[in-house]
Amino acid sequence: MSIVRLPAIPLIANDPYFSYWCPGDRLTDADTCHWCGEAKPIRGLLTIDGQPHRFLGLGDAPAMQTLRQEVTPTATECVLSAAGVELALRFTGAALPDDLDVLSAPITMVDFALRAVDGKAHECALTLSFSAALCAFGEEPRDMHAISYSLGGKNVAFLGQLTQKPLSHSGDHTTIDWGYLYLMSAAPLRCSQEGLSLCWNGNVAEEAAKIRALVAYDDIASINYFGSLRKAWCFRDGSTIVDWLRIFDARWAEIQQKCRALDKKVLDEAEAIGGADYALIAAAAWRHTFAAHKLIADETGRMVLLSKENDSNGCIGTVDISYPSAPIFLKYCPQLVNALCRGVLKFAEMPVWEEDYAPHDIGRYPYATGQVYAACDRSVSARPNARGGMRQHADHALCRAARHGGRLADPGAPRHAGEMGKIPVRIRRRSRRAAMHGRFCRAPGAQREPGGQGAGGRGLLCPPGGDPGRGCLRLGARNRAFAR
Fold it and tell me: What is the mean pLDDT of residues 50-78?
């Protein structure tokens, strides 16, 4: 097999909502879109001696010629040329498993280098534009709040909806509809109701002119974690997105060096195992895997890693996603395996979950408030669940591996029913479930979620008007964490 192209090119890939890709073979073949497929234009234009040329996205201007394009685990690099000028472009997502503060920060680094390749000097103007669509879900126009200011010798601009409604929806094929997009650079910035833009101009000769920028997103609140609104792991000490923009700017060279070292390590290991094709798969999977999760701190300060389904039901903390993503964490950061298991085991400990198999998920992103599939469906609890048993054993294996520094423990070693890693867990037998759920599921007007297909086509039973992603279980004082 020889892989000649990737399905999409990652540009910004930090977390499930801050994830934008170019669905073309070259950056000039298509407009960028969100991970779920919704159009979110990011466009780049280079004007050379008065003549515009596209280097990112669609538009009326002719496309620059792509000379080289490479995707590594932490970066996407592209070299393009037009009218005697060469442009090197690099988007870096610092998915560094040995620096989880940097990894969890919703920030992408962007580098430009411009140089003349025909021996002449050229007047150039470079524009990188981010549509206001990055701050909203759907096509309905929104009133935007746009501000720019100077900070420590750098220009900062941010954009967001005038009316903010954090965590106002959940589901699949959805993008964020709250929060603020940030741009920081020494180059001039422009902000308006239409979006944010970096606008640089200058004389380009043989010596490269370099421009850099930071693109970030402040989501205000990231996850509803069983009734507690949590932000990304890097903000657990009270720091803000502006603090982290300044940290990235101050540590730019260090972070870039660490990213390049990680790229070499991962690609060398992958190529030694499976050749060039396997190395490309590893490069494509790296940011994709990390960006499919959100790393937060729970109310006690412990690390929790939560996945989001894409093109399924939008569930959060789904064990079906945990298994294929776990190997990268086991090899490069075993503590993330505990973080990956912590949410589903917390839910399995709650009185509402009385099955002898693991839950499928713990809600619908960004609401980690209880399993979406069949949480109240008595027909599911009445029959055996082979996949559930498989999940239970896999949970044991993952947690035991995390305890042993990423190595799977001796299969013959004794297992303790009350301990999975350092996370307490009890495997309950059936007891009051039918009685409790009977009161709810037979309530007048109860209805099945129309869009909740999965696990055999079962949906979540909810009261009229209920949002299953926000939790619909009303089972008494012991289960207040699931009340809306």
Answer: 97
Q: CA angle, corner 454, sides to 451 and 457, nearest 5?
A: 80
Residue 6 and residue 201: Cα distance in Å, rounded?
33
Handedness of CA 82, 83, 86, 92 (dihedral sign): negative
Characterize 281-318 residue by residue with b for buried, 16 or more Cβ atoms within 10 angstroms of its Cβ, and e for exposed: ebbbbbbbbbbbbbbbbbeeeebbbbbbbbeebbbbbb
- The pTM for the full model equals 0.80
Q: From CA 450, how far away is CA 420, in angstroms rounded?
A: 36
HSE at residue 422, side-chain half, CA atoms within 13 A, is 10
Q: Residue 466's CB: how many other CB atoms inside 10 A?
A: 17
> Is-cis flag, bond preceding 366, omega within 30?
yes
Structure token pair of residue 404? 């042993």
Kindly state the tokens that stand for 283: 């490069």
Q: Tell me the C-alpha distance between 43 and 31, whole Å.
A: 7
CA–CA distance from 24 to each of 43, 80, 345 (Å)?
14, 15, 40
Angle 386-403/335-348 helices, nearest 10 degrees? 140
Q: In which residue are the tokens 């680094």 written?
A: 109
Convert the pLDDT of each residue in 307-322 to its tens digit.
999 998 999 999 989 9
Question: Each residue of 148-157: pLDDT tens digit?
Answer: 999 999 999 9
DSSP for 245-310, please give it.
HHHHHHTHHHHHHHHHHHHHHHHHHHHHHHHHHHHHHHHHHHHHHHHTEEEEE-TTS-EEEEEB-S
- The answer to whether the beta carbons of residues 278 and 271 sit under 8 Å apart is yes
Residue with tokens 């260090």, as numbered in its chain = 254
Contact partners, residue 28, CB within 8 Å, separation at least 6? 54, 55, 56, 57, 58, 63, 64, 66, 80
For the record, the structure tokens of 43 come out as: 């466009």
Q: Give the total residue count for the chain.
A: 484
Structure tokens, 77:
């690099």
* Contact present, 6 and 284 (Cβ < 8 Å): yes
